[in-house]
Amino acid sequence: MTMLTERELPWLAAPLHAIRHHERSHALLLHVGEGCGGFELALRVAQSWLCEHPDDAARPCDQCPACHLVRSHHHADLRAVMPEALRAELRWLADSDDAAEGAASGSESGGTSKRKLSSEIVVGAIRQAIDWAHTSSSRGRGKVLVLFPADAMNEIAANALLKTLEEPADGLRLLLCTAEPQRLLPTIRSRCQMVRVPAPDTAQSLAWLRQQGVEGAEVLLHAVGGGQPLRARDWAAAGLSAEVWTQLPTQIAAGDTRGLALLPVPQALQALLRLCHDLMAVNAGGAARFFPKANLPRTLDSVALNQWHAALMRVVPHDDHPWNAGLLLEALVTQGRQLLQVHHRGAAHPRAERPHASPHRAHST
Ligand SMILES: [Zn+2]
């Protein structure tokens, strides 16, 4: 897969320039919003540091063996520590003893079996990275250790990293990348130089999405919550179209799951949660953020709405669903449909709101 640079992600150009010229710390904390190219930024900084023929502005040459190795994810002096699940998603393939991380962290044996991929950075991975940092640099320009996202480190892992942050191995530089620095231990934060990367503005995001061939860019950018062009692109690649997104509220109200079924389960759950957030916002007199063009009902039963929200919040933050995700999704859609249908019946047939006129209440199913 090709590595995106500041040429393709123009909002990274200024922060990269600043880092190349002003940051001399051995540990940088890159504060980059989700879906804004944090990993790409970290790789590009690493490439600048490892390039064997950087230009006068400290930009990597993109030609030397080191640059090629970074871009193909094979530089022996660059290591990225990330949760296994993300590693699979980013196709940052284990080309070394990284493959042993899962087993070392106490998971099931049998690396190729369908065991659950960890969404944390575990202490085993940090210890291995520290060992790696103490071996000699293979191309003589030091080593770069990327932690992405750094807030995925659990507390034991973070504590294991502290000493390395304080007294790094010779020639080691660290790049901790996170969208939420406040989730890091204060002791980790205080040992890093923070670099805050502003999110691209809407015009930049839309221009980029259109350049990527994403249709309905504006709707999709709203769908992800704005300011996250890479996430919008990923959602489009996962099967979400502007049309599907726009029709989603009506479809859910009608119990039609065709649009939702086009999405992978995690995105489908996110879509439901976003719809729920917007319903809560408009029912509280506010504006819809994710579905600004939809005509959302404003007189929903607040108890049922809160219950739906609670049900979604129980599952959405966890990517690793312990039970059948399809059934779970179905139950959540049913709950949303009941919530919206009560409203629809009420809106279409005002008299149906009289208690005796609606004998088949949703909760009887
Ligand atoms: Zn180079």
Number of domains: 2
What is the percent of helical residues? 40-55%
Estimated share of beta-strand residues: 5-15%
| Amino- and carboxy-terminal Cα gap | 49 Å
Low-pLDDT stretches: 95-113, 346-365
Instruction: Output the number of helix runs.
Output: 16
Strand order of the largest sheet: 2-3-4-1-5
Q: Kindly report the CATH topology of the largest domain.
A: Rossmann fold
CATH-scheme architecture of the largest domain: 3-Layer(aba) Sandwich
Number of strands: 5
Organism: Vitreoscilla filiformis
Region (Disordered): 343-365
GO molecular function, one term: DNA-directed DNA polymerase activity
Pfam family, one: DNA_pol3_delta2
Could you walk me through the main structural features you see in this protein, from its secondary elements to its overall organization?
It is a single chain. This protein is 46% helix and 7% strand. It is an alpha/beta fold and 365 residues long. It has 2 domains: 10-199, Rossmann fold (3-Layer(aba) Sandwich); 238-364. Helix 6 runs parallel beside helix 7 (155-166), helix 9 (202-211) runs parallel beside helix 11 and helix 14 packs parallel to helix 16. The radius of gyration is 24 Å and the shape is elongated. Zinc ion binds next to helix 3.
